[in-house]
């Protein structure tokens, strides 16, 4: 059997990168860029170093200040992933940042989620008492009072408050729409999915909108669990309704 030749960023990305740099910045800039090595290990190491510095800066920024965290546990294929975002006030501004992403090797019960969050906080010397509110969905492993994440955190931080995701509330409310509006929304989503199903279907409305100088020329996909996403998809179709008609 013949082994596939080794390829890396040096051979796959660098030629195009140099061509772009030469076209935009000139030959001198392209020559300087050509002297920078781009093997896989170098690119990986630099990405890791940049991400580590950004994480260290963020951790220093939130030390000893109140923070709000938002948790989402999702399954992609066979892997269960925990995504933790946070909000905090810095110089009178509310900042929202991604705190960390981690993967469960086994079960993902509420206690497992709590252990993962506490492990991250302890390893970065962040006190759980800084968490003033938690924003999650309504899953049992998140909201359970005894073994759920909320129950585990409440025993450690009694003053912490729990907030259910507003987007999930809107999704529940959307199920009770009037029949006419619900049918219209479903029809629009079917049209969008049909247009997005092939490049040809997408090029036709784009040309129609381009010829008539419409404000937009592409449709937006929607996310099933997010009512705001479906609302934006409906709004985009409405904005180019005259061109489609």
From TrEMBL:
InterPro entries: RNaseH-like_sf. This is Transposon-derived Buster3 transposase-like protein-like. It comes from Oopsacas minuta. The lineage of its organism: Eukaryota, Metazoa, Porifera, Hexactinellida, Hexasterophora.
């Amino acid at each position: 059997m013949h082994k596939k030749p080794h390829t890396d960023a040096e051979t796959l990305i660098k030629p195009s990168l140099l061509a772009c740099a030469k076209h935009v910045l000139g030959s001198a800039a392209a020559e300087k860029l050509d002297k920078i090595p781009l093997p896989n290990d170098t690119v990986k190491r630099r990405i890791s170093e940049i991400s580590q510095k950004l994480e260290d800066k963020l951790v220093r920024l939130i030390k000893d200040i109140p923070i709000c965290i938002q948790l989402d546990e999702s399954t992609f294929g066979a892997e269960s992933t925990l995504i933790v975002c946070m909000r905090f006030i810095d110089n009178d501004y509310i900042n929202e940042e991604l705190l960390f992403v981690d993967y469960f090797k086994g079960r993902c019960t509420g206690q497992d989620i709590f252990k993962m969050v506490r492990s991250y906080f302890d390893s970065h010397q962040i006190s759980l008492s800084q968490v003033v509110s938690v924003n999650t969905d309504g899953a049992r492993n998140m909201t359970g009072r005894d073994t759920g994440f909320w129950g585990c955190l409440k025993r450690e931080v009694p003053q912490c408050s729990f907030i259910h995701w507003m987007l999930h509330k809107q999704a529940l409310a959307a199920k009770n729409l009037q029949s006419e509006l619900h049918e219209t929304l479903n029809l629009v989503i079917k049209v969008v999915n049909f247009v997005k199903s092939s490049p040809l279907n997408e090029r036709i409305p784009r040309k129609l909108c381009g010829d008539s100088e419409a404000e937009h020329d592409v449709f937006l996909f929607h996310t099933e669990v997010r009512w705001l996403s479906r609302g934006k998809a409906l709004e985009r179709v409405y904005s180019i309704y005259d061109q489609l008609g």
